[in-house]
Amino acid sequence: MKTLARAGFWFLFGAACAVVAILLGGPERLAARARPAADAHGHEGEGGEGGHEGQGHEEHEDDEVELSPEAIAAAEISTVKAEMRPMKLPIRATGAVALDADHVVHISPRIRGRVERIDVRLGQLVKKGDILAVLDSVDLGLARAGYLKAKASLESAEVNYRREERLMNQGATTEPEFMEAKTAWLMAEAELRVARETLLLYGLARKEVDALTWEHEAPIGYFPIAAPFEGTVIEKHLTVGEVVDTSERLLTIADLSSVWVLLDVYPKDVPRLTVGQPVECEVEGLKEPVQGSLTYIPDVVRTETRTLQVRAEVANLERRIKPGAFVNASLYKSLDPSASRTVVIPHEAVQTMEGRSVVFVKEAEEPNRFRRVEVTLGRRIGGWQEVLAGLAEGQEVVSGGSFVLKSELQRGQMEHQH
Fold it and tell me: Could you give the CA distance from residue 348 to residue 28 in angstroms, rounded to a whole number?
């Protein structure tokens, strides 16, 4: 009897608990309370018709992005394989940006004159042959007039010489008169050559000299100063109305599409330098470093600093690098190829998400699917990034378009949260 009474008691207690559970929220609420425990162990919790995936599987999906072949092509996504390379130890150096001295011209007039007109401004980009300024020169006017006079004198002397030559053949003139006419013709020809060469020395073109006549629109003393090549006007030292001489520097034009970086290195580091090796420059005013190459290593140590001033050349097509800016540079030289090899990938493959460095690895079985992988980074070596952990040699990572994958992954995470 006691056993039956005890069984009845537990039956009634269980029924009472079931009623309380229904009143508190029903079986769905009980199932919802059970899922976190199951998820914490990485198991799937089933409920309703379709069931729910566990937290571990959801996290794996949150690290993946799948794009159509059309979307991959539109985003210009490209991949490279992580590779092992020898470590490169940089030589640190400081210096400054300088103009490319091979593409700078200081413009001075070839003749004294008064500034009549200025056609350019500081910072203006000019092309070869563009007129920069116009001088009005008395000396040039006299030289042009002298050329035209010599040209007329030659024509007159030649006519007289040909006439005397014809009469000499007919026996109608004397030999002294013939020789006098011939001498006058030769002297006039020489004077014209002198006048012509004088204009060429003043900077006039041969075609311009040949086409010179008394009937011309501009004043005879006008002298245009033209740009010798394409570049930027970086200096201007003239004003309208002032008289300038041949020793004065009026304008400076520089081609800023490339610049020099002059760096101070110590003699002990010179054996590790070779012309053509890469140089990474952190330039004052720029957020990202720029790449260049070493083009000159001097043979003489500067006594005042006990350093050698080496030269690197850096492309500057967008004119972001300003001459005179301070530079911190790293010059890279490989060590023994058998020593200190490490995994490297292109620097543009690395993205930052939630304060962590990540890359996107292309799945071998599914070429349209990319998985986010957290990596531990080492040093940046020129355009390459050392990877200390997270990647293995041969894994295929996204190098071009990785930012697009980052944006897609973040968008998917936001949609999942909502």
Answer: 49
Could you read off the pLDDT of 391-407 as tens digits, one per residue?
A: 989 899 998 888 888 88
The pair of three-digit structure tokens given for residue 266, joined into one six-digit string: 């110590």
Spatial neighbors of 415 by CB under 8 A, at least 6 apart, are none
**What letter does residue 52 receive in the DSSP assignment?**
B
Crossing angle between the packed helical segments 55-62 and 26-40, to the nearest 10 degrees: 60
Cα–Cα distance measured from residue 187 to residue 299, given in angstroms and rounded to the nearest whole number: 56
Task: Work out the pLDDT band at 69, boundaries 50, 70, 90.
Answer: confident
| Strand positions, DSSP E, 108-245 | 113-118, 125-126, 131-136, 222-226, 231-236, 243-244
Measured CA to CA, the distance from residue 180 to residue 343 in angstroms comes to: 92
The token duo for 96 is 């400054």
Write down the residue that tokens 């799948």 correspond to.
66
At residue 186, φ and ψ (nearest 5 deg) are -65, -40
Residue 175, both tokens: 């030999």
C-alpha count within 13 angstroms, C-beta hemisphere, residue 359 = 31
Q: What is the pLDDT of residues 71-114, one digit of tens each?
A: 888 888 888 898 887 766 688 999 999 999 999 999 999 999 99
Rounded CA gap, 150 and 156, in Å?
10
Walk across the sheet containing 341-346 and list its strands. Answer: 83-86, 341-346, 384-389, 376-381
